[in-house]
């Protein structure tokens, strides 16, 4: 009989085991049954071309929704509603060691989008480990933005608290518990409070809070959903190396596709939700790294599966993991991708919690969300390798008997056609990236646009070395119980 610890460790091992078993099986077939592996690669490539086509359709839909939402006057649409006056907003931004040049544009964007400052409270959550920087940011915020909000609350997260992992999740947990007393002292209705969680580099669209309030006032059950905007990485886009730009657009397009599909949409990075749901979920988990997506699953479990994510087709812009040094930028990107892939920790969490829930959550919902997380990390780790590196290897080492077969002669041509079909998605991504670009600097703007076109040639390289390998790194760490802490992505601009 397994103990609780042993059972949970088994759940942690399974995702990584499935990935490494797939890798060893493919290498085994390469030497033992190369023909089988060729069949598998052809079938897998056909499946992936169909998936790319599906991706392209939803990407176009999301892009059209985004254009329409940006043109809509959401503040005017609020004027026709009779339940707006009682809605309040708590806006959390977390600070670590970021410079004021990064923080200021983020707070400016919030202040510029506030349509009724009496309804907005800005909460700046800092770390005691960086107390000097936190107090410097607080002083600058008080000096420049005191009159833009109903109140600004500064909360400093103490260092070395027991039973928590230092990072954004534990910072948020502490700040939210402190704000509970603040809300209760004001006597506000929990159901009328909208919470927004922004990274400190998040620059929101001017219509963000009007759009958010409109959705909150018009949805039939606004407390049972989170609200997910489109994440762009535009703040320092022109200053970043090409490989960082490619990965940034890839993340944006993945999220836009998920927004359009909706059925597998999970909160990511900056997002909004109700204070009621946040309270019922027990606030952000203070012991995990992937707090942005975990809070969705906490709410999903708290409401026995009656919780979802509503897409917001409005952009919030953040920074790439750029550093002043090119190589350091690549290392920052690797660590950022590994931290995002550490979301594999949701798989054992869901297996554990779903088992405890029993029949309170329908079995198909359990299978759907475990599959969504598990298959997502498996694909993240292996797809780029299977498509780019694996196809020709079995053909090189195949015995003479196979080299004389029709499949051996036709496989390279067939695979080439399939890869060309997959490139259609790449071309679409390249075309759709242009309208999302911020305005280029005046200096050397022609050369910069030229590099934006040809940067997509780096995609195969980037998908393997700063996407697949970091993902394999993350799941392997979890498999061996070597838990990763929270890695703070660098935010630097010229």
Task: Summarize the structure in words.
The chain has a domain at 72-322: Alpha-Beta Complex (Spore Coat Polysaccharide Biosynthesis Protein SpsA, Chain A), CATH 3.90.550.10. Helix content is 60%, strand content 11%. It has 18 helices and eight strands. It has helices at 4-32, 34-71, 74-78, 100-113, 131-145, 168-186, 208-218, 242-261, 275-280, 291-302, 326-341, 346-357, 363-388, 393-397, 400-403, 406-436, 445-454, 459-479; strands at 88-94, 120-127, 151-157, 193-199, 203-204, 225-232, 271-274, 308-317. The strands form two sheets. A five-stranded mixed sheet has the order 3-2-1-4-7. Helix 1 packs parallel to helix 13 (363-388). It is globular, with a radius of gyration of 24 Å.
Features:
494 residues, alpha/beta, five-stranded mixed sheet, three-stranded mixed sheet, 8 strands, 11% strand
Percent strand equals: 5-15%
Which shape, going by the Cα principal axes?
globular
CATH C-level name of the domain at 72-322: Alpha Beta
Cα separation of the termini: 58 Å
Number of H/I helices: 18
Brief description of this entry?
This protein is an alpha/beta fold. It has helices at 4-32, 34-71, 74-78, 100-113, 131-145, 168-186, 208-218, 242-261, 275-280, 291-302, 326-341, 346-357, 363-388, 393-397, 400-403, 406-436, 445-454, 459-479; strands at residues 88-94, 120-127, 151-157, 193-199, 203-204, 225-232, 271-274, 308-317. The chain is 60% helix and 11% strand.
């Amino acid at each position: 009989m397994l103990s609780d610890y042993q059972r949970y460790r088994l759940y942690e091992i399974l995702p990584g085991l499935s990935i490494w078993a797939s890798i060893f099986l493919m290498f085994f077939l390469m030497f033992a049954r190369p023909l089988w592996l060729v069949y598998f690669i052809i079938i897998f490539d056909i499946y992936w071309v169909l998936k790319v086509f599906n991706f392209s359709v939803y990407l176009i839909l999301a892009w059209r929704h985004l254009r329409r939402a940006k043109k809509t006057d959401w503040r005017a649409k609020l004027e026709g509603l009779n339940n707006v006056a009682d809605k309040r907003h708590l806006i959390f931004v977390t600070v670590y060691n970021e410079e004021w040049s990064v923080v200021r544009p983020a707070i400016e964007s919030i202040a510029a989008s506030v349509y009724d400052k009496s309804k907005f409270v800005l909460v700046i959550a800092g770390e005691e480990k960086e107390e000097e920087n936190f107090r410097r940011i607080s002083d600058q915020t008080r000096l420049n933005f005191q009159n833009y909000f109903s109140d600004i609350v500064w909360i400093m997260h103490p260092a070395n608290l027991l039973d928590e992992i230092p990072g954004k999740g534990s910072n948020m947990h502490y700040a939210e518990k402190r704000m509970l007393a603040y809300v209760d002292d004001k006597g506000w209705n929990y159901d009328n409070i909208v919470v927004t969680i922004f990274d400190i580099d998040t620059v929101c669209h001017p219509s963000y809070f009007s759009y958010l309030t409109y959705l909150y006032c018009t949805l039939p059950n606004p407390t049972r959903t989170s609200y997910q905007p489109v994440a762009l990485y535009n703040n320092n886009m022109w200053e970043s190396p090409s490989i960082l730009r490619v990965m940034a657009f890839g993340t944006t397009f993945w999220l836009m596709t998920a927004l359009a599909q909706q059925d597998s949409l999970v909160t990511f990075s900056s997002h909004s939700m109700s204070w009621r749901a946040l309270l019922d979920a027990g606030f952000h988990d203070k012991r995990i790294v992937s707090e942005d997506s975990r809070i969705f699953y906490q709410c999903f479990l708290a409401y026995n599966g009656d919780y979802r994510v509503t897409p917001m087709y409005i952009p919030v812009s953040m920074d790439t993991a750029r550093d002043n040094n090119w190589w350091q930028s690549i290392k920052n990107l690797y660590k950022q991708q590994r931290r995002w892939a550490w979301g594999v920790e949701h798989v054992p969490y869901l297996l554990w919690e779903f088992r405890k829930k029993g029949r309170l959550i329908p079995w198909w919902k359990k299978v759907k969300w475990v599959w969504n997380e598990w298959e997502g990390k498996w694909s993240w780790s292996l797809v780029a390798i299977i498509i780019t590196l694996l196809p020709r290897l079995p053909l090189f080492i195949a015995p003479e008997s196979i080299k004389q077969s029709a499949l051996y002669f036709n496989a390279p041509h067939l695979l080439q056609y399939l890869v060309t079909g997959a490139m259609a998605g790449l071309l679409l991504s390249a075309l759709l990236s242009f309208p999302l670009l911020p305005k280029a600097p005046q200096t050397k703007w022609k050369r910069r646009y030229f590099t934006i076109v040809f940067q997509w040639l780096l995609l195969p390289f980037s998908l393997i070395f700063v996407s697949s390998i970091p993902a394999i790194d993350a799941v392997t760490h979890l498999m061996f119980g070597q838990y990763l802490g929270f890695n703070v992505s660098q935010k630097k601009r010229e």
